[in-house]
Amino acid sequence: MDNKSKENSKSKINNTTLIIICAIVIALPIIYYFCYALPQHNKALQEIELQKLEYQKEQDRLLEEKKANEKREAELKKEQEQEKKQRDYENCMSNADSTYRSTRNNNCKQIYEQQNAQYQKCLTDTQEYNRKYPQEAYPDHRCDNLIPTTKQSECMLPTATADYINKQYSEEKDRCFSVYKS
């Protein structure tokens, strides 16, 4: 083999080597991309998607929890309002009862005081008459028919007065019902 052939052979080796080196240089980034970079990138995207899903689940859970809390608070508020309304109703009815009893007792007291005043006046007049006219003295039992027949706290009221008080009492109970029970 001569020199030319050696040179040609060296040149072919050098060209082949150069082509192999170029192919390796071109193939390395492609191999790196497909074997390492792309899988890492896909893995990172999957992790991001998982994090998004977990975040969305957490947000959904928090939203459900918030709705449940709002519902509980609304139910509690409604229950408290109903309890307050019931207490207000009971207070209203109690006030109506108290007003009824107080009005009735005051009227009974007035009747008792009128009857007692008439009885005391009769006794005073009888004593005066008996002092002035001892020979014609009235009997001691003359005023017995004026002794108050009722206690100060309970009596039979005149029909018109009793009807008026009962009507007011009924109207007040109706008002309590319409305000607090409807």
Topology overview:
Elements: H1 3-132, H2 159-180
Which descriptors would you attach to this protein?
rod-shaped; 182 residues; mainly alpha; 84% helix; 0% strand
Detailed description of the structure:
This protein is mostly helical and 182 residues long. It has one domain (11-180). Helix content is 84%, strand content 0%. The protein has helices at 3-132, 159-180. α1 runs antiparallel to α2 (159-180). It is rod-shaped, with a radius of gyration of 56 Å.
Order of helices and strands: HH
Tally the helices: 2
Number of domains: 1
Q: Uncertain segments of ≥5 residues (pLDDT<50)? A: none
The rough form would be described as rod-shaped
Rg value: 56 Å
Distance between the termini: 122 Å
- DSSP strand count: 0
Strand content: under 5%
Report on the biggest sheet.
none
**Helix share bin:** over 70%
How does the helix and strand content classify structurally?
Answer: mainly alpha
Q: Please, what is the average pLDDT?
A: 87
Brief summary:
With 182 residues, the protein is mainly alpha-helical.
